[in-house]
Design a protein that fits this description.
The chain has about 160 residues and is mainly alpha-helical. The chain has helices at about 5-15, 20, 25-30, 35-40, 45-55, 60-70, 75-90, 105-110, 120-140, 145-160. It contains 10 helices and no strands.
């Protein structure tokens, strides 16, 4: 897909993968009720990530879900390995997908990275969640991207009621 492909086209092209045909109007409408409903729904995170790519901020949702997976790790050896990967991918200065967190939070992670705990990314994850909830989520709801998806599902729903 060329970088010039519009975000609306990307989401509608998802039909080729069977995604938009699996989306229900009810699920899409629930996304507007709260950010929590969006990221805990079946397809919301995938659709939201596609939108965040248009804002060049998809690293936020990737980091948030990576932290959710990280917290479930029980093996200390695996935790160390995954913590280092999270650090080099999202936290360290100039990381390929560096997230926007304050210096004190970054410094605390740097301090604890040698012996990472299950909660060592919690504060960074909380900050990223807040960024998404307060900044990009309201823009997502107002975006042509979400509005066209909602309209398309409403139209499909209306047509199925007529038939």
């Amino acid at each position: 897909m060329s970088p010039n492909t519009c975000c609306i086209c990307k989401i509608f092209r998802a039909e080729e993968n069977g995604i938009s045909s699996k989306l229900s109007l009810e699920e899409v409408l629930q996304w507007s009720q709260s950010f929590e409903k969006l990221i805990t729904s079946k397809y919301g995170p995938m659709i939201y990530k596609t939108y965040l790519k248009t804002e060049h901020s998809d690293e936020n949702i990737e980091f948030w879900f990576a932290c959710e997976a990280y917290k479930k790790i029980t093996s200390q050896r695996k935790r160390i390995s995954v913590a280092r990967k999270l650090f080099t991918t999202y936290i360290q200065p100039q990381a390929p997908k560096e997230i926007n967190i304050d210096s004190p939070v970054r410094q605390e992670i740097i301090k604890n990275i040698q012996e990472p705990t299950q909660s060592c990314f919690d504060e960074a994850q909380r900050i990223i969640y807040m960024h998404m909830e307060r900044d990009s989520y309201p823009r997502f709801l107002e975006s042509k991207f979400y509005q066209k998806l909602k309209h398309r599902l409403q139209t499909n729903s209306d047509n199925s009621m007529v038939n």
